[in-house]
TrEMBL record:
It comes from Syntrophobotulus glycolicus (strain DSM 8271 / FlGlyR). Pfam families: ABC_tran. Its main location: membrane. InterPro entries: AAA+_ATPase (IPR003593), ABC_transporter-like_ATP-bd (IPR003439), ABC_transporter-like_CS (IPR017871), P-loop_NTPase (IPR027417), PstB-like (IPR005670). The lineage of its organism: Bacteria, Bacillati, Bacillota, Clostridia, Eubacteriales. This is Phosphate ABC transporter ATP-binding protein, PhoT family. It is found in: Cell inner membrane. Residues 8-248 form the ABC transporter domain. Keywords: ATP-binding, Cell membrane, Hydrolase, Membrane, Nucleotide-binding, Phosphate transport, Translocase, Transport. It is a peripheral membrane protein. One of its GO terms (biological process) is phosphate ion transmembrane transport.
Length: 253
């Protein structure tokens, strides 16, 4: 088997909100073009860790971060322009958050900011992104309609299309299905499986069946520590830490 390429490498990450430590010495190598799941009880630091990868924590007052995150071997806390970084590292949130404008304008929002103006090029981006997010067939005849008229599941796929439109390399998903019904959830899970051919995906989920179904790697977080990180099969069939075992067998959390 080919050795997997490391896309993201976290080295000794500590993060404090004021004086309260939310991440404790996280070390993790995340492989390219795989799905990595972050699991663990509420408040253990999953979202906080996810947001260190696109430097979204920088936007919060009073946050202190030590350690390094490398993407393609560049330290994103030293060498990177955050606008470029957030183009390369797209993020999808728990609650779908389309802008109150048309489906079309949502998809090309970022492309327009980045200077794309030609209509045929924008049309192309819209179709390609909506196809990649498995939404094209459902909306192709109503691209001018307000995005807020879509169902929750469609809105979430639209948000994925909006992220894909700016051609990221990494996709961060923070509990992307927790506000969705089972059918929409299934669609997003199927999509993750397809998208990993092109993108490195990291997904925070409370749903352990979901982690087991869609991820290649799983990290179990507890009280700000990455307690165990391994191939998903190993985490779920043969965890090496008692705390991981207790969590995945439902003994706490
Ligand atoms: N902006 C903030 N300011 C202060 N403390 C915060 C902030 N965001 C998160 N925290 C704290 O940091 C810790 C980790 O939170 P985080 O949201 O990363 O956990 P999580 O594992 O994603 O939880 P959940 O599964 O409930 O979303 C918690 O104790 C939380 O209260």
């Amino acid at each position: 088997m080919m050795k997997e390429k490391i896309k993201i490498s976290a080295k000794n990450i500590n993060l404090y909100y004021g004086r309260s430590q939310a991440l404790k010495n996280i070390n993790m190598d995340i492989p390219e073009k795989k799905v990595t799941a972050l699991i663990g009880p509420s408040g253990c630091g999953k979202s906080t860790f996810l947001k260190t990868i696109n430097r979204m924590n920088d936007l919060i007052n009073n946050v202190t971060i030590t350690g390094q995150i490398y993407i393609d071997e560049a330290n994103i806390y030293e060498e990177t322009d955050t606008v470029e970084l957030r183009k390369k590292v797209g993020m999808v949130f728990q609650k779908p958050n389309p802008f109150p404008m048309s489906i079309y304008d949502n998809v090309v929002y970022g492309s327009r900011i980045h200077g794309v103006k030609v209509k045929t090029k924008l049309d192309e981006i819209v179709e390609k992104s909506l196809r990649s997010a498995a939404l094209w067939d459902e909306v192709k005849d109503r691209l001018k309609q307000n995005a807020l008229s879509l169902s929750g599941g469609q809105q979430q796929r639209l948000c994925i299309a909006r992220v894909l439109a700016v051609e990221p390399e990494i996709l961060l998903m923070d509990e992307p299905t927790s506000a969705l019904d089972p059918i929409s959830t299934q669609k997003i899970e199927d999509l993750a499986d397809v998208l990993k051919e092109k993108y490195t995906i990291i997904i925070v989920t409370h749903n352990m069946q979901q982690a087991a179904r869609i991820s290649d790697k799983t990290a179990f977080f507890l009280h700000g520590e990455a307690v165990e990180y391994n191939d998903t099969d190993a985490i779920f069939s043969n965890p090496s830490d008692k705390r991981t075992e207790d969590y995945i067998t439902g003994r706490f959390g």
